[in-house]
Amino acid sequence: MCGVAGVLSGSHAEPAGLDELKRMIAMLGHRGPDGYGFYRDDRIGLAHARLSIVGLAGGFQPIHNEDRTLWISFNGEIFNHVELRRDLEARGHRFYTQTDTEVIVHAFEEYGPATWAKLNGQFAICLWDTKRRELWLVRDRLGILPLFYARRGSHLVFASEAKALFGGGRVEPAFDPARLAQVFTHWSTAPHGSVFERVESVPAATAIRVDSTLALHVDRYWQPDFTADPALASLSLDEAADRLEEKLLDAISLRLRADVPVGVYISGGLDSSVIAALARKLDTTRMHSFGVRFTDAGFDETAQQRLVAGHVGTEHHDILCGPEDIQAALPDVIRHGESPLLRTAPAPLFLLSRLVRETGIRVVLSGEGADEWLAGYDIFKEDKVRRFWARQPDSKARPKLLGRIHPFAAVNGQKDSPLWQAFFKRGMMDTEETFYAHRTRWRNTAWSQRLLAAEVQAAADDAAFEAHVAAHLPAGWPRWSPLARSQWAEISAFMTPYLLSAQGDRVAMANSIEVRYPFLDPEVDELCAALPDRVKMLGLRDKLALRRLAARHLPAEIVQRPKRPYRAPMTSALFGDGAPDYVRDLLSPEALARYGLTDPVAVAALADKAHRQNGRMAGEREEMALVGTLTLQMLANYVHDELPQRVRDQRAALDRAEIHILEEHASGAGPDARIVLPRPTAA
């Protein structure tokens, strides 16, 4: 994976200078520590920070096609590049590198925009067509990798992270109040936005063509289809497990392709354990695995992680994460994530990716995506129970089924209380609502908005988030089962904008680590979507096909474990006697007033309560509200106070780095254009 950045100028505008491009890409050095590359002509400047995974020699970007009419700055991996390259060579294309990146430009030459749907990978593509004077900004099917853009006057700027837009100097960082409020309900902004004013995100599965007038033409090139396949309707559980194993083995095999060693994350849960077991089946050489341990026993899964590592035969490494570790990591997590967080869960993953880097591994496999595609979350069980209850809303027995879900929440008999049942009964009869399964979660989280400033609360428009997601309902959605509908909502409204960003790309790439997701392989997902519901969830038993597969490769203790959501200590790690100085500094009346984003009175009252109770809060929504407020203050401090100095520091570091310049100075792309081929600059 890498970092990409660039500036597209209007037909009569001054093109971006090399120094501006350097300032932009300097902010992305963590994404690509192996060197920098640039391309410029009279309309566009492309910059690239390289993390070498495939084609280690000669793979510096931007990369071009045979006649240099297409140029690309690319972040990601194309896992089926070998097969695509073979086909393209048979059609007469000639390659000058061994990279997967070059496959994209030749595929675009051959297939045009139909290329995007042919790519099995995780990617953010910036492709410049010199003949048509068009820029393509393209993101992978599920939005694994980020890509932002902003229009400023006669220029369009784009980059892997918003900080690169700010570093270039054309975009001033300013918060968008409505989008900030979205985070305090949905954990993230809508998939097309960011928390910054007029800084947009290319949505997942979307290709944006920017024409010669800088007009944007948006095309969604893929949508999931959860329509049950009649040919699979009679599958037995064993047959479903067979098919799933076959697809997963293919997906893992593709993701083991690299010119560097590939490791694996082991959380102790079912999903990562299956990936580890199947990866070892394919690769019997020395393999490293990595896990997070917690000093707080309520979050720790050390025994299960080590059981799996020993069973499958990996060389296991782990970190022990306590309150001080979360405190130390959280500011860096916010700087890299560029959004407030309502949970501290990304912080241990940031530390884990640092351990991976220190071990000398650059690529790891993760089990993310199994819960979404194979119905492993309790939110799907909530949906099922509430729909069942809604058919007899006066039943006293049906709501008792709620006691069988969320095994790690509401202990000491609370799940039998009228309050617990009333919480889930609200809105229960609205079974045709698009976000029926998620409304309870969002309504609960929205409580945290009361800590925001009145102006931010007034700008809140939760309907805008939902309208954007609902606007992209797949054509077959009305025919899908209720389970399929809630799976789609979870993928598009939570997995893509929050999980794959805050707990995926941002914390991994902060340490120059690439994470690959076999469960997000297109063929795996198409199979999972087409499987009958009964092999995913039967009654309240989840992930049946995956558990049957796991039973062939893992100890029974792992196979039979109930889903344990990944969590980390929140206010207990940040408030009370052991609170770090920055908590009191950032939540002081002076700091709250300085940024004007929160309600000082409401924040002070809840923060004082947290300190008095040594961080032990009665409800999770209070914890999320405090974590959200603290991390919002962190982000404001970074953007307004730290960023200018970081731009200068990173620019100085880049001046000492290895730079490859590909500059084209002619107005066209013909043979008379002067090309400076890749060369290292003086140190």
TrEMBL record:
Keyword Nucleotide-binding among record annotations: yes
Catalyzed reactions per annotation: L-aspartate + L-glutamine + ATP + H2O = L-asparagine + L-glutamate + AMP + diphosphate + H(+)
Coiled-coil portions: none
One GO biological process term: asparagine biosynthetic process
Keywords: Amino-acid biosynthesis, Asparagine biosynthesis, ATP-binding, Glutamine amidotransferase, Nucleotide-binding
Residue ranges annotated for the Glutamine amidotransferase type-2 domain, each copy included: 2-213
Name of the protein this chain belongs to: asparagine synthase (glutamine-hydrolyzing)
